[in-house]
Amino acid sequence: MLALGVSGVAVVIAEHTDTSYRSAEEVRTIASIPVLSTIPRIVTERDRRRRVRQHRLGTAAVAVGLLAVIGSSFVYAHNNHSLVGALSSEPPPAAKK
């Protein structure tokens, strides 16, 4: 959790200290001189494959995270009658002896 927090702070700091322009509109709003031209983005086959791979890895990461949450919830709640009783509107079942 600490590493996640530190990395989040690092991203915020990096975004605030980045002084580059990302679009022509951003330049137009800041500079008092007109924008003469822009360089279009050139998307190669390698770029397209990288984007597809990143999308797949992101989807897989979300699926693994979801499975981890579901699995840990099952393990924690399995045979935990007091938790089931607290979360349900029905009284908990009697424990078997």
Average per-residue pLDDT, rounded, comes to 85
* Rg calc: 25 Å
The poorly predicted ranges are: none
Largest sheet entry: none
* % residues in beta strands: under 5%
Class from helix and strand fractions? mainly alpha
Specify the overall morphology: elongated
The tally of helices reads 4
> Span between N and C termini?
40 Å
* DSSP E strands, number: 0
Q: What percent of the residues sit in helical stretches (DSSP H or I)?
A: 55-70%
Question: Which H/E pattern describes the elements?
Answer: HHHH
What does this structure look like?
- By secondary structure, this protein is mainly alpha-helical.
- Helix content is 65%, strand content 0%.
- It has a domain at 60-90.
- The chain has four helices and no strands.
- The mean pLDDT is 85.
How would you concisely characterize the structure shown here?
With 97 residues, this protein is mainly α. It has helices at residues 2-17, 24-30, 45-77, 81-87.
